[in-house]
Design goal:
Helix content is about 35%, strand content about 20%. The longest helix has 23 residues, at about 440-460. 5-amino-5-deoxy-1-O-phosphono-D-mannitol binds near residues 362, 413 and 613.
Length: about 625
């Protein structure tokens, strides 16, 4: 949700910032902008702050920059931003960077300043004026008012931020004190890239990896002051900090499309590997058990838990729902699943004997972070299942399991979902073995998990058949997704994938609930995706499919390989390999991801950057 990148050094800042913005564009793409300072290494005051910004994608900004190239050719320092609009419509004026009225201070911001109204009123009475409707401009002008008082940029930023309520990741440059970038965060991710005589600031590592692997993840209420000679860090409370420099562990190839048309497709195709990476070194197949080093500090607590509460949003919430079914089945521990956004505001009953498991690809989702804080405040132990290493959720939890899925760039989550399921399966297997599963049962599950990567590959090798089905439904206005048991959450996930990237209205439903309402929607224009894999409720879902057929609905069935019967009831059948019922969600979701992808591509939608969405939702 908004991407920030900044550079100070001796190289072409425009090129570095634009490249970084393109890599961060998945975080928001309503508008983009840069603030550039020409070479100020002589340290004199300068008025050469150039602001260029445009509504629309980074490519629009790039065109603008190409026209202005001569004015900024010398820039070796600057900040850039790609925006997901919160306050103010996405137009040129509301785009970041924002400046003070005299254009001496430029600021980019990710987050929301909640008390901006009060601050704005105060500034208006002091005679300051505003050009945009944004909370960010208010913060910029607020810093300027502080500067007028203290005549020190770092101190002005610090003082302003200590009065601000809400969330922020910011980067600031100024002609008043050139040769400096000031960065700070509270609730929005920000890191400093440490190079040789050059420094970077970015919302995530993908923007800097091309130049350095050494990064510092800023903590909440921490600021960094970057110059060409080095950096310093301190808290907004004015205490010096000494954060560790960490190494980025993914490579450049993992954030490039690698020959695929879209990141989403690449990520779908990565799943044989990413699923494997999630259990590699953790699954002890010969013992029918698992080793989860990241959970060591909380393992006893988890084994003795009275109750497990999953909390998450979106796709991660769907994997949590699968988790409820699997853990209750294998371990007999009561499980609840909560939308993080609801959990935090409804005073949930939590005891110190509860274990809360927060699931998040990005590790930055504001609602999930807030739910974690609520749970910890009430004494629960909190575990994180997170993909992004060093992210806020990874750091806020008592222990956790990293998904090791690599960077997920496509806004529609795919590989993170199956990796989340892998992590959940490992926890469920472990808890099951401590409670009710025999070693033999554990071994059967472990062996079935080991077969999953090649089974995913098998489905991907037959993607062409899904594409053909997709072509027939490009003009559909609605879709219904039905599933039961472990596959009910998969139906929800299939519907979410379709609606977010193709803008077709889609609903996921427990198959048997259909007759309590949604059945009224079914006619010859309604495609109904039914997940009907062979398990103990197979006959029940066949009955539900017949109910759809009786009303002329078009059934697209996801069925187990070898199921000869299903073709009688369905217009189209997509077969997936046989596995244990608890593992079917991992396989059943793959054709649904492909279906959504191909429908969206056929409709000409931008699947990697669907309208109104952003990859990580760092605002409430
Ligand atoms: O990064 P998180 O897993 O916490 O994100 C949660 C949701 O915002 C995310 O899953 C969202 O629903 C995706 N766009 C789904 O494809």
């Amino acid at each position: 949700m908004c991407g920030i990148v900044g550079y100070i050094g001796t190289k072409d800042a425009v090129k570095i910032i634009l490249t970084g913005l393109k890599r961060l564009e998945y975080r928001g793409y309503d508008s983009a902008g840069v603030a550039l300072l020409n070479d100020t290494s002589n340290g004199h005051l300068t008025d050469n702050l150039t602001i260029l910004k445009r509504a629309g994608k980074v490519s629009e900004l790039e065109k603008l920059i190409l026209n202005q190239k001569s004015a900024i050719a010398e820039a070796t320092q600057g900040i850039g931003h790609t925006r997901w609009a919160t306050h103010g419509v996405p137009n040129d004026v509301n785009a970041h960077p924002h400046t003070d009225p005299e254009n001496h201070i430029a600021l980019v911001h990710n987050g929301i300043i909640e008390n901006y109204g009060v601050i704005k009123q105060k500034l208006l009475t002091q005679g300051f004026t505003f050009r945009s409707e944004t909370d960010t401009e208010v913060l910029t002008v607020f810093i300027r008012s502080m500067y007028d008082r203290v005549k020190d940029l770092t101190e002005a930023v610090r003082l302003a931020l200590s009065e601000v309520e809400g969330t922020f990741g910011i980067a600031v440059v100024s002609t008043l004190e050139p040769d400096k970038i000031i960065a700070a965060r509270r609730g929005s991710p920000l890191l400093v890239g440490v190079g040789d005589g050059e420094y970077f600031v970015a919302s995530d590592a993908s923007a800097v990896i091309q130049y350095t692997r050494q990064v510092i993840y800023l903590d909440d209420d921490e600021m960094a002051i970057l110059s060409r000679d080095g950096y310093a860090t301190k808290t907004i409370g004015d205490e010096t900090t000494n954060p560790a420099i960490q190494e980025i562990h993914f490579d450049l190839a993992s954030i490039e499309k690698g020959g695929f048309d879209h990141f989403m497709l690449k990520e779908i195709y990565e799943q044989p590997n990413t699923f494997h990476d999630a259990f590699r070194g953790r699954l002890l197949a010969s013992e029918g058990n698992v080793r989860l080093g990241g959970l060591t500090p909380v393992l006893d607590k988890l084994r003795r838990a009275n109750r497990i509460i999953f909390t998450a949003c979106g796709t991660s919430w769907h994997s949590a729902l699968v988790g409820e079914y699997i853990i209750e089945q294998l371990a007999g521990i009561p499980v609840e699943v909560e939308y993080a956004s609801e959990f935090r505001y409804r005073n949930p009953v939590i005891t110190p004997d509860d274990v809360v498991i927060a699931i998040s690809q990005s590790g930055e989702t504001a609602d999930t972070l807030a739910a974690i804080k609520e749970a910890r405040m009430k004494g629960a132990t909190v575990i994180g299942l997170v993909n992004v290493v060093g992210s806020s959720i990874a750091r806020e939890t008592d222990a956790g399991i990293y998904l090791h899925a690599g960077p997920e760039i496509g806004v529609a989550s795919t590989k993170a979902f199956t990796s989340q399921l892998a992590a959940i399966l490992l926890i469920a297997l472990h808890l099951g073995r401590t409670r009710r599963l025999s070693p033999r049962e554990g071994m059967d599950i472990a062996q079935a998990i080991e077969r999953i990567p090649e089974q995913i590959q098998y489905i991907l090798d037959h993607a062409e058949s899904v594409k053909k089905i997709a072509e027939q439904y490009t003009d559909a206005r609605n879709f219904l997704y039905l599933g039961r048991g472990y596959n009910f959450p998969v139906a929800l996930e299939g519907a979410l994938k379709l609606k977010e990237i193709s803008y077709i209205h889609a609903e996921g439903y427990p198959a048997a609930e259909m007759k309590h309402g949604p059945i009224a929607l079914i006619d010859e224009n309604m495609p109904v995706v039914c997940i009907a894999t062979q398990d103990e409720i197979y006959d029940k879902i066949i009955s539900n499919i017949q109910e759809v057929r009786a009303r002329n609905g078009n059934v697209i069935a996801i069925a187990s390989e070898g199921d000869k019967r299903i073709a009688e009831f369905a217009e189209h059948v997509i077969y997936i390999p046989n596995t244990l019922p608890i593992l079917t969600p991992v396989l059943a979701v793959i054709p649904l991801q492909l279906l959504a992808y191909y429908v969206a591509v056929q409709r000409g939608c931008n699947v990697d950057m669907p309208r109104n969405l952003a990859k990580s939702v760092t605002v409430e």
